[in-house]
Structure formats: structure tokens, C-alpha cells
């Protein structure tokens, strides 16, 4: 029994161009089909697939590329720009129409197995790689609902998608080989999933015959893609991958139309290929996850502050610049902060302060995971008035002479996080138990202070409301700390906010704040709510607010807490509830 053809050009032509078989005499259509079959290398492709029917997906792509001795070159920097996990959309120019797609699938699948590609007609004929394909004709309004649903679902499940925005192979132009007009479907996917974009430039070209036929009759050129695949024997292409672009960085106020955004993204991608300056603000991929056994070994060397009722352990740890624990904390910090529109944009959120600060670590011994952490600077040990060591807050705020009391018997708190896997649990509350255990262990601690951030994802109006509210109810009697990059609210905006926050007390104004933020589908950040309700009156103050340009332009409030004024109920809860 004859094996079924995997690649059947005659059937494909009959499906797409039925008039070819009815409009012209049969001998003409047979002659044309015979010629196209040879140009398409139909027999060779089917022979290869049948001989390798035990292989699928990356394995069969690997065998095929080796069978024609086709290779791609990529440098280490480009490799490091492939995110190893998390939702992401890879976009690329499309110079070859076949081998570029196979090469990208082979490359990215070697880093992460969850990658899928929106498949053109050529790829859809290749059943052995069907698991890696999402069938779609092009990225336009005519795309099937099933394909759109598949992409959305894959991104929702933290998968990776490869898209060629042109939707078809590049053509020869006056200034070289370039994509035709891009379609904006990938931006819609990115917006819905809030997925970052990773731009890829493929340096390659098809044969002169292909471009000549394309200029005469474009549909016929598409049927030659099989020929273009097979004539690349012993050839090589170069792939360059740029740093990821968070979706929010694609939305620039000066860009007034989606078409202009598309053109700028396309220029950004081609600039990567030309080693020119790119256009959009980018982020590095996160550093690889550290061996958790090494991390736990370091955690166990710390001071055990207690255990929660469900078995999570809290440790106070010191680290060094070669610490596995610190690297994993930095990776998880950056991962977490990026999820809320913050972060440094670096592969790992670690700075020079981490090496001489202590780290309060919440560890799940059953799952072998860091749940979250707080960074603690002990002023009695750092003492910035006597040596070169500084407090992190001193990079953001200037301390007046009247604030020198903070440099003794105080702790600076900051860089707190609970990794996304544990959102919706009691993890943040457990970190507060850890702070309570610290105060119990070191009762000389009189003050806690540090920056508390409001994400730049909050519109300015929402941030104005929050900052006005916390200044109104928690302002300091004296100006003892001043932001180096002060948050500005205009006089006109202040007058509007005066009218908005007309409550007689904190509770009434807080209700107004919550209702106003709800209009933006936002809520009061958890730390702001927890800190402000921690102490009796006068125990919590916000000394000033500023913008942190090194942390995605978030707004930082300098908070000061007097530990002796912690409410009795909170004191009992956080200082006396650990085993």
C-alpha cells in the first residue's frame, strides 16, 4: 500500500487555485504541476519525512537541517536574550519563508519546549511538526477565531509564540530584502496578555529566481518556497536577538497611531540587524534559577527567627557577592517587580547594598522555594557617618541634620517581595511575623524606615490622589528628609484634591481614596495599607515622596515607623505568633 503523501502540491494547488484545473486544458495544468513539483522538491521532501517518521518536532527539524547541511549562527548575547520561562512573543522579519521559521523553532525550542509558531501554508503541510504550529494564514482581521483563541490561551499559560508580523516572505526592494507591511495582530496579543516582545533579525535572502518570479506574479513565488528551502544546501544564516521590550514600553505618548507604533517596532528590529541604536526601552532576561539545594544550605546558616503555623521557616541571613542565596533573591525580586510594572530591567536585582545588608527570608521547606524576602539595613552596623558604607535610602533622599537620630538603633526596610507563585497566600503576613521576631530579638530597635513604592503603572492622577492622601494624614511635623527627585503635584491639582478629600478623618478619606482608585480598576498597594494601620496615632509618618528613575519611574514614599507605638493588637499578632 502506497504511503500517503505528507507534502502534496497538486492537492494544495487544487484547494487554493481550483480554476487552474478547470480554466486551462489538462495538459497545461499537468505540465505546470509537474514543473512546480520539481521546483518544490516534492519527492525529496516526502522521501525525507517518510524515512524519518519516527521523529517529531525539534528532532525532525534537527535531522532535516543536518540533511541539507544548513546552519544558523548566533552569538552568546543573542542567546541570553531568549527568556527561559514566562509568556513572551518573539517577532521576526521573514526573509526566507521556510528555513528561517524552522531555524527559529529549532533555536528557541532548544531553550524552552513550550514555543509555538503561527504557521504559513508551507509549514502547515508538515505534519511531523504540527504540535509546534498554530495554523493561521496571516496576522490580520481575517485570522480564524480558533487560532486567536489558541494564541491567547498559550500566552495565558505562560507560553512562547513566534510571529512573523509581515505574514509572508520578504521581497526585494530598492534598499535590499525587506518585509512587506507589517500587520498589528501581534500587538493585540501582547496587549491582552501583557506579554513582552522579543525582536529577532534574520540575516538571509532567497534566490534571484524567487525575487524575479515574485515581481511578476506573487502567488506563484509562494509556491516556490519548497525550492528555496532545498537550494540552501551547505548554506548558513545569521540570527540576532534583541533584548525584550515590555508591552508598556511600546505605548509612548508621542506615538499617536497604531500604524506608527508598528513602523517604529519594525525599525527597532531592523536596527538590531544593522547594529544601530534601538528605539524602545528594553529589559534583560532574568538570570537562570539557582540550584535550590545550594540556596537552602546558605539559608540554614542564617539566624532562625521562627516557624509559621503551616511550617514555613523564617531566617535572617547575610550574603556575599558570590552567594547562591543572593542571586536567587535577586532573580525573584526582579521577576516579582516586573509583574507589577517595576524592576531594574537587569537580569538580577542585586546591588552593592545587598552585600552588607541582612536578608529576612521566608522559606517553604516542603516545596524547597524562597517564598519572599525583606532587605534589612541595621544602622548600628552600617553607620554612614563613620565609614564609606551608605544606606540605600540615601541614594533617593537627603537626610537633614534633624534626621540623624535615624542612624542609630534603627533598621531600614526595603526590596520586599513575595514571588508570584505565592500571591494570594499569607506570605506577606508571614514576612511581617519575621519583622516582629526581629524586633523581639533586638528590642533596641526604635525605628523602622525605608522607601515604599507606587508603581508607574498607576496613572498620574491615581498616584496624585495616593500621595496627597498620605501626606494629609501621615505628614511629618518637620521636614527632616527630602527626596532628591521630588514628586510634583501642581497647585491646581492640589486644589482639586482638597475638594475630593473632604472627610473629617482618616477613615472617611480612606474610603474616598479606595472608591477613587476603583474607578481606575486599582487598589491601595498592600504595604501602604499595612504600614498606615500598624501604629497608634503619630507612630507612622511619610516624610517625603519622589520618583525613582532607576526603578521604572515608580514613586517612592519615605516611611518612618516608631516601634514603641505599634498597636497592642499588632504587637501581639506579629511579635507573639511564631513557634
TrEMBL record:
This is Phospholipid acyltransferase. The keyword Acyltransferase applies. The keyword Thylakoid does not apply. Pfam families: Acetyltransf_5, Acyltransf_2. InterPro entries: ACT14924-like_Acyltransf_dom, Acyl_CoA_acyltransferase, Ornithine_N-alpha-AT, Plipid/glycerol_acylTrfase. SUPFAM superfamilies: Acyl-CoA N-acyltransferases (Nat), Glycerol-3-phosphate (1)-acyltransferase. One of its GO terms (molecular function) is acyltransferase activity. One of its GO terms (biological process) is lipid metabolic process. Keywords: Acyltransferase, Lipid biosynthesis, Lipid metabolism, Transferase. Residues 88-205 form the Phospholipid/glycerol acyltransferase domain. Pathway: Lipid metabolism.
Amino acid at each position: 500500500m502506497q504511503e500517503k503523501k505528507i507534502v502534496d502540491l497538486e492537492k494544495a494547488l487544487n484547494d487554493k487555485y481550483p480554476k487552474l484545473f478547470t480554466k486551462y486544458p489538462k495538459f497545461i495544468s499537468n505540465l505546470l504541476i509537474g514543473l512546480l513539483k520539481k521546483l518544490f522538491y516534492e519527492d525529496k521532501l516526502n522521501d525525507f519525512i517518510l524515512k524519518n517518521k519516527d521523529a517529531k518536532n525539534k528532532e525532525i527539524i534537527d535531522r532535516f537541517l543536518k540533511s541539507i547541511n544548513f546552519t544558523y549562527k548566533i552569538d552568546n548575547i543573542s542567546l541570553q536574550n531568549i527568556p527561559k520561562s514566562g509568556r513572551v512573543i518573539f517577532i521576526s522579519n521573514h526573509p526566507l519563508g521556510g528555513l528561517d521559521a524552522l531555524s527559529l523553532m529549532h533555536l528557541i525550542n532548544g531553550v524552552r519546549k513550550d514555543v509555538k509558531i503561527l504557521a504559513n501554508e508551507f509549514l502547515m503541510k508538515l505534519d511531523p511538526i504540527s504540535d509546534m504550529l498554530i495554523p493561521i494564514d496571516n496576522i490580520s482581521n481575517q485570522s480564524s477565531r480558533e487560532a486567536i483563541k489558541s494564541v491567547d490561551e498559550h500566552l495565558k499559560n505562560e507560553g512562547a509564540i513566534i510571529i512573523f508580523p509581515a505574514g509572508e516572505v520578504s521581497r526585494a526592494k530598492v534598499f535590499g530584502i525587506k518585509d512587506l507591511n507589517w500587520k498589528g495582530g501581534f500587538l493585540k496579543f501582547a496587549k491582552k496578555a501583557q506579554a513582552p516582545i522579543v525582536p529577532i533579525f534574520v540575516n538571509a535572502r532567497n534566490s534571484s529566481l524567487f525575487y524575479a518570479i515574485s515581481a511578476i506574479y506573487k502567488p506563484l513565488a509562494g509556491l516556490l518556497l519548497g525550492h528555496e528551502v532545498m537550494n540552501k544546501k551547505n548554506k548558513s544564516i545569521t540570527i540576532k536577538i534583541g533584548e525584550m521590550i515590555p508591552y508598556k514600553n511600546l505605548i509612548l505618548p508621542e506615538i499617536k497611531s497604531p500604524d506608527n507604533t508598528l513602523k517604529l517596532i519594525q525599525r527597532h528590529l531592523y536596527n538590531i540587524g544593522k547594529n544601530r541604536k534601538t528605539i524602545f526601552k528594553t529589559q534583560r532576561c532574568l538570570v537562570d534559577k539557582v540550584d535550590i539545594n545550594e540556596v537552602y544550605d546558605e539559608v540554614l546558616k542564617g539566624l532562625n527567627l521562627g516557624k509559621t503555623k503551616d511550617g514555613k521557616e523564617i531566617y535572617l541571613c547575610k550574603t556575599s557577592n558570590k552567594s547562591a542565596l543572593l542571586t536567587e533573591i535577586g532573580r525573584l525580586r526582579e521577576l516579582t517587580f516586573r509583574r507589577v510594572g517595576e524592576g531594574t530591567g537587569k537580569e538580577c536585582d542585586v546591588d552593592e547594598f545587598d552585600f552588607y545588608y541582612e536578608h529576612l527570608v521566608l522559606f517553604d521547606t516542603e516545596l524547597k522555594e524562597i517564598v519572599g524576602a525583606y532587605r534589612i539595613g541595621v544602622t548600628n552596623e552600617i553607620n554612614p557617618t563613620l565609614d564609606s558604607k551608605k544606606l540605600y535610602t540615601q541614594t533617593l533622599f537627603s537626610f537633614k541634620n534633624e534626621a540623624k537620630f535615624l542612624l542609630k538603633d534603627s533598621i531600614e526596610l526595603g526590596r520586599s517581595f513575595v514571588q508570584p507563585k505565592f500571591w494570594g497566600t499569607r506570605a506577606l503576613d508571614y514576612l511581617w511575623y519575621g519583622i516582629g521576631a526581629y524586633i523581639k530579638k533586638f528590642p533596641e530597635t526604635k525605628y523602622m524606615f525605608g522607601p515604599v513604592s507606587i508603581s508607574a503603572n498607576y496613572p498620574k492622577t491615581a498616584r496624585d490622589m495616593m500621595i496627597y492622601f498620605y501626606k494629609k494624614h501621615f505628614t511629618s511635623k518637620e521636614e527632616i528628609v527630602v527626596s532628591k527627585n521630588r514628586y510634583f503635584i501642581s497647585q491646581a491639582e492640589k486644589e482639586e484634591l482638597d475638594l475630593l478629600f473632604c472627610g473629617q478623618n482618616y477613615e472617611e478619606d480612606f474610603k474616598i481614596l479606595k472608591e477613587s482608585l476603583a474607578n481606575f480598576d486599582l487598589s491601595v498597594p498592600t504595604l501602604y495599607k499595612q504600614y498606615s494601620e500598624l501604629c497608634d496615632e503619630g507612630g507612622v509618618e511619610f516624610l517625603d515622596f519622589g520618583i525613582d528613575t532607576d526603578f521604572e519611574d515608580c514613586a517612592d514614599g519615605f516611611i518612618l515607623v516608631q516601634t514603641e507605638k505599634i498597636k497592642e493588637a499588632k504587637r501581639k499578632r506579629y511579635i507573639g505568633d511564631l513557634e
